[in-house]
């Protein structure tokens, strides 16, 4: 699970049933992720590919029998927190997500556990697409302001691609580099399977003005808040 998420205002009536429901969503996303990977890598002949396409469309029709319009937003999870299950980096329901698991690793620090970027994320032959790397680091760095109580949007994200990142296992890490009111500067890195830094990042994350009234006083515990305060810094 991703660090830096928030208690839900909705009580969970039946956490066991919700956990089972979540597991089924996760399993579906895992299965479709496998399909994505094999869609890129398959060498079966053309009639077989056409037959598979027909079957996949039939499966999509079954899922569309009950599907919500538009995006997923935040949902209450069995652990009683709000989660973004549709998120393309960490989302439990999203087969596009590698998926990342970003955890708090210390005071103002987070890390993405080792995960695999395969053929579906290829840019330069054999290597990870630069835009995918930006997405990964946006997520890893973006978790840090949330865990220190300043869940901000990315104002800028500067990347230095030191060397190509081979497809396969990668990991990420990030930490607070500075805070200024509602602004948090975060630095971080992407590492390859050998633990070598391939990409360095610096990002500025800003709590939008419209959101500041909803944030109370951070308690320092992974984004938990006291009751909303009348005013925060610069409110
Ligand atoms: C756990 C979840 C992890 C999620 C990680 C993923 C995060 C994302 O991908 S977010 C999506 C991508 N980002 C966006 O769409 C953000 C779009 N931009 C915006 O909404 C706004 O410009 C926003 C929120 C950054 C700031 O706007 P607003 O709230 O009106 O405040 P604004 O007054 O413009 O700026 C606040 C402060 O930030 C500074 N600032 C804003 N943008 C920048 C910038 N690019 N560079 C430097 N400083 C900046 C301003 O100068 C100002 O500083 P000060 O308070 O000292 O005068």
From TrEMBL:
It is found in: Cell projection, Ruffle membrane; Cytoplasm; Membrane. CDD domains: PaaI_thioesterase (cd03443). InterPro entries: HotDog_dom_sf (IPR029069), THEM4/THEM5_acyl-CoA_thioest (IPR052365), Thioestr_dom (IPR006683). Signal peptide: none annotated. Residues 126-197 form the Thioesterase domain. Residues 70-95 are annotated as: Disordered. The keyword Lipid metabolism applies. Transmembrane segments: none annotated. Its main location: membrane. Its EC number is 3.1.2.2. It catalyses: tetradecanoyl-CoA + H2O = tetradecanoate + CoA + H(+); decanoyl-CoA + H2O = decanoate + CoA + H(+); (5Z,8Z,11Z,14Z)-eicosatetraenoyl-CoA + H2O = (5Z,8Z,11Z,14Z)-eicosatetraenoate + CoA + H(+); (9Z)-octadecenoyl-CoA + H2O = (9Z)-octadecenoate + CoA + H(+). GO terms for molecular function: hydrolase activity. One of its GO terms (cellular component) is membrane. This is Acyl-coenzyme A thioesterase THEM4. It comes from Janibacter alkaliphilus.
């Amino acid at each position: 699970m991703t660090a830096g998420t928030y208690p839900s205002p909705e009580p969970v009536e039946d956490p066991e049933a919700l956990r089972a429901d979540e597991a089924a969503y996760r399993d579906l996303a895992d299965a479709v992720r496998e399909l994505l990977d094999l869609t890129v890598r398959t060498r079966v002949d053309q009639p077989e590919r056409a037959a598979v396409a027909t079957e996949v469309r039939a499966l999509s029709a079954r899922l569309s029998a009950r599907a919500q319009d538009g995006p997923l937003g935040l949902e209450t999870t069995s652990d009683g927190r709000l989660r973004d299950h549709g998120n393309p980096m960490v989302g439990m329901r999203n087969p596009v997500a590698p998926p990342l698991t970003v955890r708090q690793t210390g005071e103002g620090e987070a890390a993405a556990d080792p995960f695999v970027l395969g053929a579906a994320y290829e840019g330069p032959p054999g290597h990870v697409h630069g835009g995918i790397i930006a997405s990964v680091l946006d997520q890893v760095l973006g978790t840090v302001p949330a865990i220190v109580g300043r869940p901000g949007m990315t104002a800028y994200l500067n990347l230095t691609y030191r060397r190509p990142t081979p497809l396969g296992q990668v990991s990420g890490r990030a930490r607070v580099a500075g805070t200024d009111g509602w602004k948090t500067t975060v630095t971080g890195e992407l590492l390859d399977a050998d633990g070598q830094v391939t990409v360095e990042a610096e990002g500025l994350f800003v709590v939008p003005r419209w959101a500041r009234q909803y944030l109370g006083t951070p308690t320092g515990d992974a984004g938990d808040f006291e009751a909303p305060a009348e005013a925060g810094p610069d409110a």
